[in-house]
């Protein structure tokens, strides 16, 4: 049985206008878009993204059609690319689903991204679920290079389509200020995987026992406004010599199913330390959610499923989205992982 879940976030009473307007998922709500403004879309994709691209087409009610690119290489290793049916895409709404999971694959995708708007398309959207240099967003000492700004500048130079600037769809960018790194030539649309998590939490048998935990203050700043109806636990990192120790800053995990929420995971050390801390503080179960399961060097192997001792043994669930294709392939049908697909929100974003 696959651990991929296609969830359609529901509109709960919590998201009514009577509540704080900030406590909402930022995603496009397709049912609120007038039919006259919805667009059919031709979706090109990088080969590693084919699974997600097909899921997007499947949930789009026929409004997203897959299109093809021939990806080859010359003898010297440089890309040999061909956009199929280039005449057919004229005056159409065209999108490209990208994955910059490895620096070595960015150039060939940028070549396609810069070419598609020049093929007389009506409009162009780049879907880049994971913005990979997001953690290198600031300069702490003279000489540091903020590569998040570099990548944003590259994306900002996408040529204009006939209908105007390109749209860029990104999910849960690491630092909120990075939205200001993009130039005026593109229109960034920042979406979130949190509505998918909220829908999954409502389906759990212990849904009324959920507490949301943040591994540090940065995660709290990014996500707390989307969990105003849940009890919260905030952890913090403190230095002890060369080590960084996770400690409980505020909140009560005792007797609760605690779900740690963050935007991404790399080595996983912070999440594992947070899980151990919450278990010692009396949490019955500990789960985790990250939108981007990067897991370099197969670090996903460090995350063990819950056993007979509950939270003390490991994670009840570890939810990730399908923003990182290689990770999804590695953890499919592997406990405690469960994949919450971004297909629904991407399909909605492509129709505006």
Structure keywords:
352 residues, alpha/beta, 8-stranded mixed beta sheet, 6-stranded parallel beta sheet, 8 helices
What would you say this structure looks like, in words?
The protein is α/β, with parallel strands linked by helices and 352 residues long. The protein is 20% helix and 26% strand. The chain has an 8-stranded mixed β-sheet with strand order 1-16-15-14-13-10-11-12, sandwiched between helices. Strand 13, helix 6 and strand 14 form a beta-alpha-beta unit. Helix 1 crosses helix 8. About 2% of the residues have low confidence.
Helix and strand content put the structural class at alpha/beta
Shape: globular
* Largest beta sheet: strand ordering: 1-16-15-14-13-10-11-12
Number of helices: 8
* Low-confidence parts: 12-18
Mean pLDDT figure: 90
* End-to-end distance: 34 Å
Number of strands: 16
- Tell me the major beta sheet: 8 strands, mixed
Order of helices and strands: EEHEEEEHEHEEHEHEEEHEEHEH
Beta-strand content estimate: 25-35%
Task: Kindly provide the radius of gyration, computed on alpha-carbon positions and rounded to a whole number of angstroms.
Answer: 21 Å
Estimated helix fraction: 10-25%
Write the layout of secondary structure elements.
Blueprint: E1 4-5, E2 41-45, H1 50-59, E3 64-66, E4 69-73, E5 79-83, E6 93-97, H2 106-115, E7 123-127, H3 147-156, E8 166-171, E9 186-191, H4 194-202, E10 210-214, H5 217-223, E11 232-240, E12 243-250, E13 257-265, H6 269-280, E14 285-293, E15 318-321, H7 325-331, E16 337-340, H8 343-349
Parallel strand pairs: 1-16, 2-3, 2-6, 6-7, 7-8, 8-9, 10-11, 10-13, 13-14, 14-15, 15-16
Antiparallel strand pairs: 4-5, 11-12
Helix pairs in contact: 1-8
């Amino acid at each position: 049985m696959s651990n991929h879940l296609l969830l359609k976030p529901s509109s709960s009473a919590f998201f009514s206008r009577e509540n704080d307007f900030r406590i909402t998922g930022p995603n496009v709500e397709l049912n609120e878009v007038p039919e006259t403004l919805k667009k059919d879309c031709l979706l090109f994709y990088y080969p590693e993204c084919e699974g997600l691209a097909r899921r997007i087409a499947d949930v789009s009610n026929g409004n997203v059609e897959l299109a093809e690119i021939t990806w080859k290489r010359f003898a010297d290793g440089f890309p040999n690319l061909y956009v199929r049916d280039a005449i057919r895409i004229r005056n159409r709404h065209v999108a490209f689903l990208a994955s910059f999971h490895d620096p070595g694959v960015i150039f060939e995708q940028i070549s396609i991204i810069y070419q598609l708007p020049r093929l007389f398309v009506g409009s162009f959207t780049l879907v880049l679920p994971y913005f990979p240099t997001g953690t290198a967003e600031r300069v702490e000492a003279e000489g540091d290079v903020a590569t998040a700004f570099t990548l944003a500048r590259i994306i900002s130079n996408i040529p204009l389509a006939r209908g105007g600037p390109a749209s860029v769809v990104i999910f849960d960018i690491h630092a909120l200020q990075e939205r200001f790194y993009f130039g005026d030539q593109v229109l960034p649309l920042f979406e979130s995987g949190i509505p998918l998590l909220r829908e999954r939490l409502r389906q759990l048998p212990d849904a009324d026992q959920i507490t949301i935990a943040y591994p540090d203050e940065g995660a709290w700043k990014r996500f707390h406004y989307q969990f105003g109806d849940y009890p919260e636990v905030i952890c913090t990192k403190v230095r002890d010599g060369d080590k960084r120790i996770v400690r409980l800053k505020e909140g009560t995990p005792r007797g609760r199913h605690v779900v740690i929420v963050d935007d991404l995971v790399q080595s996983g050390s912070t999440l594992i330390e947070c899980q151990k801390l919450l278990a010692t503080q009396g949490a019955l179960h500990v789960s985790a959610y990250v939108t981007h399961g990067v897991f370099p060097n197969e670090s996903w192997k460090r995350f063990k499923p819950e056993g007979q001792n509950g939270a003390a043994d490991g994670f009840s669930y570890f939810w990730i989205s399908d923003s990182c294709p290689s990770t999804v392939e590695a953890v499919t049908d592997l406990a405690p992982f469960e994949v919450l697909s971004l297909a629904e929100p991407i399909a909605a974003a492509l129709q505006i």
